[in-house]
Design brief:
It contains eight helices and 15 strands. It is of the alpha+beta class and 361 residues long. The strands form four sheets. A six-stranded mixed sheet has the order 5-4-13-12-11-10. A five-stranded mixed sheet has the order 1-2-3-6-7. The protein is globular, with a radius of gyration of 19 Å.
């Protein structure tokens, strides 16, 4: 199997095309890594022999070096539950997230989850047990998913690749073989700087693995993009079931001081950004969202009562706006960055044509 090095897409991001989503400013990188201490790594697997691979793993590290064993307040929201996110029951019960979050393809959740357990053991963290969070979307249209390409070493490679800098998007990591609104999809990210009018200024970042949607539903800041770039201009994937299947995983990070129930409310707002882009939670879609806050450092081994900070409830709405804006833009960054790909059984999924997109401004 060939591990491909992580590289930025040669295609422009949405803002480089002259489009601006929402009213809030972005962080310096316009990425989830604008949240201090958060890092993203990919392992991308592309090969034609002995079986076709268009897949990989993406990891989001929630804590900086030296603080990896500290927990974050966190919560999940399942908009449509035709998907998997391991560790979600304990996360929902405790309101706490430990270790990195990984995203891969549907058939390889187990091996990625086991590799993360092994990683925690290797790190010598003081856990008597480990329930890592691994989510998935299905890449079986472009990837020979039954070949089980992803290995534990690939997960370790993604962890090693993790960086707090710019995030590669499109056909990388877990997003390598993904399709979004019948165009090539994959990994996308965005961020917002949030002034809460008295409670402080904070950063919110989003990473998505986008693999869902019908072309005719696709919107860009209200523009009917799917209708304007119809199938006569860009052929759709040859399997019509692609339009009503697939999933999206959304990871939201913030340094705003949120406790678990506030993270839950934040995760729910990913639905707004998804809807603006044209997602409606079809029956075949696994639309699962996770939000976490890095503001409170919670020791897994402490015995003293924990003091935590929380956002005053009347100042939290700007964070909801930020989540909606950043999710919509992250989806579009995934679509813009993704390149045309030929994969399993010579199936082709075309990238969205940049010239047609800019003509809609």
């Amino acid at each position: 199997m060939t591990q491909h090095p992580t590289r930025p897409s040669p295609r422009p991001r949405l803002r480089e095309l002259g489009f601006t989503i929402g009213r809030l400013p972005t962080g310096p990188l316009n990425a989830i890594t604008d949240v201090g201490g958060v890092a993203v790594g990919h392992c991308t697997l592309i090969s034609d022999e002995p079986r076709v691979a268009r897949t990989g793993v993406t990891v989001v590290k929630t804590r900086p070096v030296g603080e990896e064993s500290d927990l974050c307040c966190a919560a999940i929201h399942s908009f449509n539950g035709n998907g998997e996110m391991t560790g979600s029951h304990w996360l929902a019960e405790s309101g706490l997230l430990s270790g990195p979050v990984a995203i891969t393809n549907t058939h390889q959740v187990g091996i990625v989850r086991d590799a993360l357990v092994e990683h925690e053991v290797r790190q010598g963290h003081d856990f008597s047990w480990c329930l890592p969070v691994v989510a998935e979307t299905y890449d079986g249209f472009l990837n020979d998913v039954e070949a089980f390409h992803v290995t534990a070493d690939d997960v370790f490679a993604a962890l090693t690749d993790a960086s707090t800098g710019a995030v590669a998007e499109g056909n990388v990591g877990g997003g390598t073989g993904m399709i979004c609104h019948e165009f090539k999809g994959g990994i996308g990210t965005s961020s917002r700087i949030v002034d809460t009018d008295g409670a402080g200024t904070f950063t919110l970042g989003v990473l998505v693995q986008a693999n869902y949607g019908s072309r005719m539903d696709l919107r860009l800041d209200g523009l009917h993009v799917g209708a304007a770039i119809d199938t006569d201009i860009v052929p759709p994937p040859t399997d019509p079931s692609v339009a009503d299947a697939g999933s999206i995983i959304v990871v939201i990070a913030t340094d705003a001081p949120l406790v678990a129930d506030q993270c839950k409310r934040l995760a729910q707002r990913a639905t707004v950004g998804l809807a603006r882009a044209g997602g409606y939670g079809s029956n075949g879609s696994g639309d699962i969202f996770l939000a976490f806050s890095t503001a409170n450092r919670i020791s897994v081994t402490g015995s003293e009562p924990i003091t935590m900070r929380a956002m005053p409830i009347e100042h939290i709405s700007p964070l909801f706006r930020a989540a909606a804006e950043a999710v919509e833009e992250a989806i579009w960054n995934a679509i813009c960055a993704a390149e045309t790909m030929t994969g399993f059984r010579d199936r082709i999924v075309h990238a969205i044509p940049i010239d047609r997109l800019t003509a809609l401004r």
